[in-house]
Specification:
Strand content: 25-35%
CATH topology: Histidine-containing Protein, Chain: A
Order of helices and strands: EHEEHEH
Distance between the termini: 34 Å
Number of strands: 4
CATH superfamily: HPr-like
Helix content: 25-40%
Number of domains: 1
Largest sheet: 4 strands, antiparallel
Oligomer: single chain
């Protein structure tokens, strides 16, 4: 099991388009992927739950991944956040 954090650094935060891109990544993996603030974790494969997080720029999100492909899942999620969801600034 992996339990780590990632910072939201893109200008608009985890809005609809960014959440959609995150869903594209998370649903590829068999591992359980949860994301949230502090102890409030939600299913990172559920678009409505992601949108309800209200994670704006500067938010630190906790990521908990458990399963057979957890390392690969974490790597792709971190890359997506680092690339600012491939949005123009």
């Amino acid at each position: 099991m992996i339990d780590t954090t990632v910072d939201v650094i893109n200008k608009l935060g985890l809005h609809a388009r960014a959440s959609g891109k995150l869903i594209e990544v998370t649903t590829k993996f068999r591992s359980s992927i949860q994301i949230g603030k502090n102890d409030k974790l939600i299913d990172a494969k559920n678009i409505m739950s992601l949108l309800m997080l209200g994670a704006g720029k500067g938010t630190t999100l906790r990521i908990v991944i458990d399963g057979p492909d957890e390392e690969k899942a974490l790597s792709e999620i971190q890359a997506l956040f680092a690339a600012k969801f491939y949005e123009a600034e």
